[in-house]
Amino acid sequence: MQKHDQEFIKKKNRTTVFEMIKNNSPLSRADIARLTGMSPTTVSRIVSELYNLDYMHEIEQETIGVGRKAVFLQVNPKSVLSVGVEIDKLSIRIGVIDLDGRVIGSRMIERQKNEASDVTLEHIASGINGLIEEKDFDRRRIVGIGVGLPGIIDHSGGKAVLSAQLGWKQTDIAGVLKKHTGLEVAVDNELKVKSLAEHMYGSAKGSSRSVLIGFGSGVGSSLIIDGEIYRGESNSAGEIGHTVVDPNGILCECGKVGCLQTYIAEASLIEQSNKIKPIASLDELFEARREGEFWASSIIDRAMTFVAVTISNIACMYNPDTVILTGKLVERFPEVREFIAEKCMGQFVWEPLRGTFQIVYSAFENDGVVIGSGLLAQSRFLDIGSQMEQVEQV
Ligand SMILES: [Zn+2]
Prior knowledge:
The protein is α/β, with parallel strands linked by helices.
């Protein structure tokens, strides 16, 4: 056999064993041989290599019925890392994520309103490099960077096609970050990566058809079918904020009239409030409602009605098993949750669909985009065979 064929098979076998343990742990060496069809000797050798390079833990467990202890293998979640980044209008979150989707180091950076993309991306790159250095993470174990941001994203090209919130157009995010960090970079819409985090480790774990709906500075959604993000023709499936709900309604920032988000998005609610009383934030609006001010109740009740309408429309369109609600409106003001549930199940959701899905809330809240972005990078770039070769070269 040629040398490069041997190298290829070695890499492939290491990857097979690692993936097998990662997805089915705990497993014994005998289980792995049986499941992969490899010889016990080969399995033993690969497991020792993985163990010596710190990819595995051994745990002792009683085997059922036999009554004696056996040794099982489990992946060390900190043996493979990735970086997750969330770019928002006024802030950036950076986190180092392990294989279990846990944030094991993080950093926040401020962003100026309308800051140019190259300035923001340089800040992100130095933030990432700084975090890796500060916490002394092993760069060889970092598979890459995932970035989540609002807007329409070319996920295969790593570009922001259009992000109205950030003021970015055709921005090459992956290219610039790779240049400054030396790491591979995957980019996607923030709600798409957030739904990935909820699907893998959060509120929608075990679901086969889930929809995540975000109510914040805009309104958007992401659909996961059988573990895959549904992207549509131009990766813009789920942009429900610009579905028209009233052709005679209010002008939207997109230039159309009566878009859904003109009734729910934060800026719209504040703008409407200002017709009655000068307020600067949602906190003040909710405060006014708590004090029994009628106008504040009207604005919030109408917004919650549109939230319920959105959930019921989505249930009709996709027939999901789980609807995850996320975003400032439902996370910072949990008093709205009961109202939404009542409106949905008492009024808007079509009767045959009631009871076919559960409404849940994000398990990760503010960390969701960072975790999902990190998991996106792991799913895109993890090549355990190649990483082991690098780690071996000490
Ligand atoms: Zn619009």
